[in-house]
What we know:
This protein has 127 residues and is an alpha/beta fold. It has two helices and eight strands, in the order E-H-E-E-E-E-H-E-E-E. 17% of the residues lie in helices and 37% in strands. It has a four-stranded mixed beta sheet, with helices on one face. A four-stranded mixed beta sheet has the order 5-8-7-6, covered by helices on one side. The radius of gyration is 15 Å and the shape is globular. It starts with 17 loop residues before the first strand and ends with a strand.
Amino acid sequence: MANPGDGNPLARHGGLSYLEIPASEPRRSAAFYAPLFGWRVDERSASDFRFSVEDGLLIGRFTVGAAPREPALVPFFYVDGLDAAVARAVEGGGSLVEEPRAEGDVRIARVRDPAGNLIGLWQFGGA
Protein backbone atom coordinates (compact mmCIF):
# COMPACT_ATOMS: atom_id res chain seq x y z
CA MET A 1 0.00 0.00 0.00
CA ALA A 2 1.37 3.41 -0.96
CA ASN A 3 2.00 6.04 1.70
CA PRO A 4 -0.39 9.00 1.12
CA GLY A 5 2.54 11.31 1.92
CA ASP A 6 4.85 9.87 -0.76
CA GLY A 7 6.48 12.73 -2.60
CA ASN A 8 5.68 15.28 0.12
CA PRO A 9 8.94 16.49 1.71
CA LEU A 10 7.12 17.04 5.03
CA ALA A 11 6.37 13.31 5.32
CA ARG A 12 9.72 12.13 6.73
CA HIS A 13 9.63 9.50 9.45
CA GLY A 14 10.97 11.10 12.61
CA GLY A 15 11.45 14.46 10.91
CA LEU A 16 10.22 17.65 12.54
CA SER A 17 7.88 19.13 9.96
CA TYR A 18 5.32 21.30 11.78
CA LEU A 19 5.55 23.72 14.71
CA GLU A 20 2.87 25.61 16.59
CA ILE A 21 4.52 28.54 18.34
CA PRO A 22 2.56 30.15 21.20
CA ALA A 23 2.08 33.87 20.56
CA SER A 24 0.19 36.49 22.52
CA GLU A 25 0.52 38.78 19.48
CA PRO A 26 0.89 36.68 16.29
CA ARG A 27 1.85 39.67 14.13
CA ARG A 28 4.67 40.57 16.50
CA SER A 29 5.90 36.97 16.66
CA ALA A 30 5.80 36.71 12.85
CA ALA A 31 7.82 39.93 12.62
CA PHE A 32 10.37 38.41 15.02
CA TYR A 33 10.86 35.03 13.32
CA ALA A 34 10.71 36.08 9.64
CA PRO A 35 13.91 38.17 9.61
CA LEU A 36 15.65 36.00 12.20
CA PHE A 37 15.42 32.80 10.13
CA GLY A 38 14.25 34.01 6.71
CA TRP A 39 10.86 32.32 7.12
CA ARG A 40 8.06 33.15 4.69
CA VAL A 41 4.98 34.34 6.57
CA ASP A 42 1.44 34.11 5.25
CA GLU A 43 -1.08 36.37 7.02
CA ARG A 44 -4.44 34.65 6.59
CA SER A 45 -6.32 36.91 9.04
CA ALA A 46 -5.51 39.36 11.83
CA SER A 47 -4.79 36.44 14.18
CA ASP A 48 -3.79 33.66 11.75
CA PHE A 49 -0.15 33.81 10.70
CA ARG A 50 1.44 30.73 9.08
CA PHE A 51 5.10 30.25 8.23
CA SER A 52 7.28 28.04 6.06
CA VAL A 53 11.00 27.66 5.51
CA GLU A 54 12.60 28.06 2.10
CA ASP A 55 13.30 24.35 1.54
CA GLY A 56 9.72 23.40 2.49
CA LEU A 57 10.80 20.98 5.23
CA LEU A 58 9.17 22.93 8.07
CA ILE A 59 5.84 24.70 8.25
CA GLY A 60 3.73 25.98 11.12
CA ARG A 61 1.70 28.74 12.66
CA PHE A 62 1.62 31.11 15.61
CA THR A 63 -1.12 30.06 18.05
CA VAL A 64 -3.01 32.49 20.26
CA GLY A 65 -3.91 31.50 23.79
CA ALA A 66 -1.23 28.92 24.52
CA ALA A 67 1.14 30.33 27.12
CA PRO A 68 4.74 29.15 27.25
CA ARG A 69 5.62 27.09 30.33
CA GLU A 70 8.81 25.82 31.80
CA PRO A 71 10.31 23.34 31.82
CA ALA A 72 9.51 22.80 28.19
CA LEU A 73 10.94 21.45 24.99
CA VAL A 74 13.52 23.91 23.69
CA PRO A 75 13.95 23.83 19.91
CA PHE A 76 17.40 24.76 18.61
CA PHE A 77 17.65 26.37 15.17
CA TYR A 78 20.84 26.32 13.13
CA VAL A 79 21.95 29.78 11.97
CA ASP A 80 24.69 31.08 9.72
CA GLY A 81 26.43 33.53 12.06
CA LEU A 82 25.39 33.11 15.67
CA ASP A 83 26.36 36.60 16.86
CA ALA A 84 24.43 38.27 14.04
CA ALA A 85 21.39 36.06 14.71
CA VAL A 86 21.44 36.98 18.41
CA ALA A 87 21.59 40.67 17.44
CA ARG A 88 18.60 40.21 15.08
CA ALA A 89 16.66 38.44 17.83
CA VAL A 90 17.21 41.29 20.29
CA GLU A 91 16.51 43.96 17.64
CA GLY A 92 13.31 42.08 16.76
CA GLY A 93 11.91 42.33 20.28
CA GLY A 94 13.40 39.20 21.81
CA SER A 95 15.68 38.97 24.81
CA LEU A 96 19.01 37.27 25.35
CA VAL A 97 18.83 34.49 27.97
CA GLU A 98 22.24 32.88 27.50
CA GLU A 99 25.21 34.58 25.84
CA PRO A 100 26.80 32.78 22.89
CA ARG A 101 29.23 30.15 24.15
CA ALA A 102 31.21 27.21 22.92
CA GLU A 103 29.84 23.73 23.54
CA GLY A 104 32.12 21.14 21.98
CA ASP A 105 32.48 21.87 18.28
CA VAL A 106 29.47 24.22 18.17
CA ARG A 107 28.47 27.60 19.57
CA ILE A 108 25.05 28.06 21.15
CA ALA A 109 22.90 30.81 22.63
CA ARG A 110 19.39 30.94 24.06
CA VAL A 111 16.89 33.73 23.47
CA ARG A 112 13.23 34.42 24.23
CA ASP A 113 10.88 35.53 21.50
CA PRO A 114 8.44 38.42 22.12
CA ALA A 115 5.84 35.99 23.54
CA GLY A 116 8.32 34.54 26.04
CA ASN A 117 9.10 31.25 24.25
CA LEU A 118 12.62 29.98 24.83
CA ILE A 119 14.54 28.97 21.70
CA GLY A 120 18.12 27.97 21.08
CA LEU A 121 20.37 29.13 18.27
CA TRP A 122 23.49 27.25 17.17
CA GLN A 123 26.24 27.14 14.58
CA PHE A 124 29.28 25.00 13.96
CA GLY A 125 32.60 26.35 15.22
CA GLY A 126 33.17 26.00 18.94
CA ALA A 127 36.15 28.31 19.06
